[in-house]
Specification:
mainly alpha; Cytochrome Bc1 Complex, Chain D, domain 2; 4 helices; about 0% strand
């Protein structure tokens, strides 16, 4: 019986932590990324409309087929040459960059 209780407690803590990271990623996206990438990740944010090239559209299957998790984290941390994507390595901690990268997956097509 004690084992079941301990396992349930561990699962509850892990689930709560996972939810906190999801919320952190969403909050950072909304405050740092949505202005260019748009509220739904379509690359059509208020500032994104005027940029050339346009910000990445995270809803396109092509984006996810051509991009790894490591590449996403790298672009968030270091920016992307030839675009308006600025580096966030000095303003975001590594776990915050990971949280944003994970949140971006919520925009990926579900099929």
């Amino acid at each position: 019986m004690m084992r079941i209780f301990v396992m349930a407690a561990i699962l509850a803590v892990a689930t709560a932590a996972m939810g906190a990271d999801d919320q952190l990623g969403k909050e950072i996206y909304e405050s740092h990324c949505g202005f260019c990438h748009g509220p739904k990740g379509e690359g059509n944010g208020v500032a994104g409309e005027a940029l050339d090239p346009r910000p990445a559209d995270f809803t396109k299957p092509e984006f996810w087929k051509a991009t790894t998790d490591a590449q996403i984290r790298d672009v968030i941390a270091n920016g992307k040459s030839g675009t308006a994507m600025v580096p966030f390595r000095t303003s975001l901690k590594p776990h915050e960059i990971d949280a944003v990268a994970a949140f971006l997956k919520s925009f990926a097509p579900k099929n």
